[in-house]
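Take a look at this chain, tokens included, and explain the fold to me:
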Amino acid sequence: MLKILRLFSGIGAFEKALTNIGEPYEVVNYCEIDKYASKAYSLLHNLDENMNLGDITKVDTKPLATDIDFVTYGFPCQDISVAGKGEGFTNADGELTRSGLYFEALRIIEDTQPKIAIAENVKALVGKRFKPEFKIVLDSLNDAGYVNYWAVLN
């Protein structure tokens, strides 16, 4: 059975995909800051809401499992999306944007060392405008010991 740590869980699209293909899994924890999404996630996946790690910037990785198969995450796209502000990972003042929460996911990945980390984001991330951000994602995961594979899916 796959052990999953779910970051930016929303209501659990990754988990639905695993269910659809008949792959058994166990969620060891999930991380969702929105209280309504957290409640929906816990109900949809029959999990205690206490498994929610809450605000990703405050996650203490020391007590987390060290035998995780997958970390799945879809970090916020508002500052990368064509419909968003277009600031990327940092704004004009050099402060991290919501999309900059990618670095919190990276911190958790580096600390827990899952076998596989699967990310989802918007198509604009791989486009010309956000080429530097995409390079950061690929390089930082490579530096953490991961081989990158990516594709734009419909």
